[in-house]
Amino acid sequence: MSRHLRAIALAAAVQATAAFLPAAVSAGSLQPNELGRVMILEYHKVDQPEGRWTRTPANFRGDLERLWERGYRLVALNDLLDGRITVLLGTTPIVLTFDDSSPGQFRLIEQDGNWVPDPDCAVGILEAFERRHPEFGRAATFFVLPGADPPNRLFNQKDLAGRKLQYLAAHGYEIGNHTLWHANLAKYPASVVSRQLATAQEWIQRHVPGYRIRTLALPMGAYPQDIRWAIEGAEGQAAYHHDAVLMVAGGAAPSPHARVFDPYHLPRIQALESELSHWLGYFERNPQERYVSDGDPSVITVPPGTLDKARRSPGAKVVERP
Ligand SMILES: [Zn+2]
């Protein structure tokens, strides 16, 4: 398709879907930019009261509402790593992560003889939101601690730990490595680092056999002395290989289509009120920095003059926005 025809097609597609898009997009201020940045949010406790490491259930619902209204849509971390972003034209992918497997992230309650997510835990809140807004999507990565002391050992319902991990794996969520018991990996030799990571994986896989853990969130953001220990290693029969290593801070991440994207140093944004407001405001004021989808996963649309900033990926062609 010629540039001109492509521009017309894009404009028509924006108009056709305008009814589903946030105001800024339908007003035409958000043009596709798949080299824009993506926020990876980092939650800890979902509980009372609100605090440095705690978001209340009401505030977490409010976060989802704000993201939805501003045109953000959930994508899975592993899909982001693979550059497989399938959100609709004019919308922006966002990744949710939850560290430390605290109880309010995922609590099961019994209802008519079935175990269902508590409507006030993060999983319950996410699913209720998705029922109201199916296009928001469902995705989140849980960086769990299989060997921590209560209440952080696998969400703190001992007899339901396996059921929960299986639920996550089967319902569109991801499970990530966060070490066995929140070890500060900067302090240990290679043997301890690999034992922490391999054993954490092994204990998770006891509940979800064969589950492939692709990502590691560093406790306290502390890298081991040699980054290679975080990426791959083994302890006995258990070998691990991580496709990404996540930090605890650093702001919005580069686009996975950008040459500068570094999966072993993925920055995150802590989901506190101050940080969230800062970054939502930042992208309102700087819409040109935000990842905005062209709606076609087989085409990577980049701003004029930036072709050299994109990396080539098999199965997708990179084109300049007209
Ligand atoms: Zn942690």
Question: Would you summarize the structure shown here?
Answer:
29% of the residues lie in helices and 21% in strands. The protein is of the alpha/beta class and 322 residues long.
What does this molecule look like?
This protein has 322 residues and is an alpha/beta fold. Helices cover 29% and strands 21% of the residues. It contains 9 helices and 16 strands. Strands 1, 4, 5, 8, 9, 10, 13 and 14 form an 8-stranded parallel beta sheet that branches. The chain has a two-stranded parallel ribbon with strand order 2-3. A two-stranded antiparallel ribbon has the order 6-7. 41% of the residues are buried. Bound molecules: zinc ion. Zinc ion binds at residues 99-100, 178, 182, 219.
Number of helical segments? 9
**Whole-number radius of gyration?**
20 Å
Count of all domains: 1
Using the 3D structure, state the CATH architecture: Alpha-Beta Barrel
CATH H-level homologous superfamily name: Glycoside hydrolase/deacetylase
Give the biggest sheet: 8 strands, parallel
Instruction: Please report the distance between the alpha carbons of the first and last residues.
Output: 12 Å
Strand segment tally: 16
Which small compounds were modeled alongside the protein?
zinc ion
Unreliable runs: 1-19
Q: Overall mean pLDDT score?
A: 93
Instruction: Supply the CATH class.
Output: Alpha Beta
What's the helical proportion of residues?
25-40%
CATH topology: TIM Barrel
Percent of residues in beta strands:
15-25%
> What sequence of helices (H) and strands (E) makes up the elements?
HHEEEHEHEEEHEHEHEHEEEEHEE
- What is the general shape? globular
Name the structural class: alpha/beta
